[in-house]
């Protein structure tokens, strides 16, 4: 088990970590700044040394120029030069060279012959020397560098005139080790002289040759070789750092002259010397950091111990509060910040108690009505079931029963839509009050959702539950007055009773909801009641519906559906044949599922749009297939209220017709009266858009809906289809005959064709012909057929008509 670290240890650790971080960050920053300052100081030292060296070289060159100027202006020297008095010339040269410490002096005649040279071992002058003489004659005097006898010199050459030129005088100092030592003593920097051209073959073999040539300096032979090998790579005129023989050095290069062979002086400072002050100061800073850290540790320990002593007392109180003990109070002994903390802790404890009570209440109750919510209902129902089980299983003892009532208000959404949510909320509050007064105080009244409620009634059997439900509906139906508004609330109630309808809270609540939904589903039946008790098999039916909803979508997407076609025959022209597309579903495991079962499921689940589009696409393809066989057949397809309100339906039909090359006149859409009544204005607009495409529109199942004649005359339709309930027994019922006759007359007066469906006997067809009906459809002609059989039926029928005529 890992060791537990105390708060004091954590506090000290945090303080030490913080201080150490600050110390080390400061140390690193200061060390970096010190290093930068040291390097900059070295750069400055190199630049100063370069400036001193340049000034020294300039001073020497000026001294040479002055000395040469004195010499060439001396009358005796000019006379000796003119008469070529070698002794006098040599003496004058040596005397003047000694005065300025020049290393070499030369006198050249007007014929470019060497007359005197202070270097007794001198050889022949190089060809470039004579070029210098010409330049000096042209410029009056020049200072340049030149290699004489393998020794580089800074040489000043001046012509001697009397008054015309009678010769030249040259004087210079050698770039040798002696000069380098003098410069080192002056600048305290190592010095080396380089040329960017090769010297003699001997020098090349000794120094390695190359583009740069070492002349002289204060470096060792090993350092000289390394420096010569890399010299040309680092010419920049600025201080820079390089590595020679694994040693870091800082150097700067200084060009010596602008004429002749390029010469450079390299001034160098070892990094070890540069960084020595940095290392010393860095070490001192390190010891200061460590001393500060030790002091901080000692201070953190002292302060932490004093602080945590009081904190431990508060921690003990917090442990008691965390275990649910809110009775103990924290004693306040001081008036400082810790005393304020104790006060705040006590106030927090009181607030926690109040907040917990409020949170528990909010978590278990509806904010609007104050009723309990689903979690309370489940808890109370479990408690009631446990209490009933403890009493035994006597079916005659109502105390061994628990009833659950699921209640759903009817048309509550219309109240919100018409009067706003504020009025809707007030209605819900009044409904909650009436429910609470309709049951005992010990019963549980729950709001599940927007307009759904639940009652948990302990000690109530099924008969008593039915009575309570009827009384509750009566209370809700009483007029509710909200200012000038008056409401009468209608509802449906589903009942499930323990133990008959379920043994657990989840099952009872679910089955009460199933009973309520079944009650609402049957509400269209005028004989249906507002209260339903759960019946065996309803849950299985619901599960079947849920399963079919999911599998229907797969069937639509994966070709699980197919079409059947039922003929429609024109009575006045038997050769004219139409058809109606009827969708069929054969489930892979459940077998045939009737349209009256899966069509409502598609409408309630929202899959009806996908289903209708599938039927339209398949039907239009079939019209195109018939057209290729020379059969012009107008096909009717049913659409629902949701399809009619889908703004994209006309565009979809137009695209599909165009895709398969089918005329809009070949397609008829059948709508029920109830679908048009769903949203009248939107339905009329949508129907007009469909009619504008050239489609035929028909009202299906006419006579069973709720449409008025005033609405009927506004509908952009082409035909009425009489519901089969009026046609099936037409030859037996005089009332049905009167209704059918009136409908035919109505349709004709409005300029509509009339179709009678459900024709199963020849007698009914004869009556319909006599009444003036335009078209018939039913089993008398044929049952719904697959496409191939329907096609053959059409061909055979037309053949019979031709033979009869």
Concise description?
It is built from 25 helices and 26 strands.
What attributes characterize this protein structure?
eight-stranded mixed β-barrel; five-stranded antiparallel beta sheet; 25 helices
Overview of this protein structure:
There is one protein chain. The two termini are 106 Å apart. The protein is built from 25 helices and 26 strands. Strands 18-19-21-22-23-24-25-26 form an eight-stranded mixed β-barrel, surrounded by four helices. The chain has a five-stranded antiparallel β-sheet with strand order 2-1-5-4-3, with helices on both faces. It has a five-stranded antiparallel β-sheet with strand order 7-6-10-9-8. Strand 4 and strand 5 form a beta hairpin. The longest helix has 66 residues, at 7-72. It is 52% helix and 20% strand. Mean pLDDT is 82; it is low at 198-210. Helix 11 runs antiparallel to helix 12. It is α+β, with helices and mostly antiparallel strands and 805 residues long.
